[in-house]
Amino acid sequence: MGIEIQHQINNENDTSVVAAAAAPVILGLQPSALVDHVARVDRSLLSRIPGEPGGSFPVAPEELKFILSEVNSHINAYPESTSPLKTIAGGSVANTIRGLAAGFGISCGIIGACGDDEEGNLFVDNMSSYKVDLSRLRRKKGPTAQCVCLVDDMGNRTMRPCLSNAVKIQAEDLTAADLKGSKWLVMRYSIFNIDVIQAAVKIAKQEGVSVSLDLASFEMVRKFRLPLLELLESRSIDLCFANEDEAAELLRDEDKADPESALDFLSKYCQWAVVTLGAKGCIAKHRKEVVQVPAIGEAKAVDATGAGDLFASGFLYGLVKGLSLEECCKIGSCSGGSVIRSLGGEVTPENWQWMYKQMYTKGLPIDNFGVASSGTGFC
């Protein structure tokens, strides 16, 4: 890791934390930096691992080791790479922040911790290559979190993160300096980080920072629904993203658990509520305004990993730029559509160009990042 990158990261015992540089517009709270191991596999493997297919739920270190050992014998060949595994910096929040920085040119930073290991170096190198501010990322002794992302032949992904022995930022590590001057804080719901989430929300409200929350997975909502409801009912979440499965779990005890009902429920507590519907697009509500926007791009995904995360990138970009609710949804659909065209939660340069073309074709505003970097003559 280079000297310049090293100086961006706070050591475990450094309490000064943040330099006096201009605060990023959007910050992501990811208590544990994460490295994704993405592989396209046959479905038989999914029956051999803990948890339900399609969700995301933590596994123990020995379970992670078992899954990784089984991957090679269940690999399905795919055209994007000759390697059976694609290893990249990951995590829902990191995907969203990287997308905002790489695809939309928004200044972004990460709050969290990474280990002093090879995976920690990989996370740092990847995120810094997109000019993500790492001054709020603490370097701690210990392993960096890892996640296996298994993609079936329909493009559906099953995620199994291993967080139990990984370094993470603690609630008491957070300070007002982490958030001061920023506009948005992006978070992902997790019962295992609930104390950090609550501490971050408290500071964000004190600093006038708006808070975005992703509901993470239907498994997380199902197993830990009550703390989530308490968080929402605190009215401290300004923007909430849920997919169709998460929305159903959120309202499982209600007479109606359809996406529209979930949207109405979320909008009681959040200024902006969004329910993504996969190939059917999304529905969103801001105060009394409700919009429905179709999906953009191919119906069949190569890999759905990061689709919701990149949708959030586009939607947040629209909010930062003061665009309408419908425009925010359309840009979210464009960016979500860009990441499903290849394996993993990192958008390739050619797929960013695809997104810019979609935005231009649909009359959506694009800044110079889209025009200047395209070289395609579509503008």
From TrEMBL:
It holds the Pfam family PfkB. The lineage of its organism: Eukaryota, Viridiplantae, Streptophyta, Embryophyta, Tracheophyta. InterPro entries: Carb_kinase_PfkB-like, PfkB_dom, Ribokinase-like. This is Putative pfkB family carbohydrate kinase. Residues 85-345 form the Carbohydrate kinase PfkB domain. GO terms for molecular function: 6-phosphofructokinase activity. It comes from the Eukaryota. Its EC number is 2.7.1.11. It comes from Handroanthus impetiginosus.
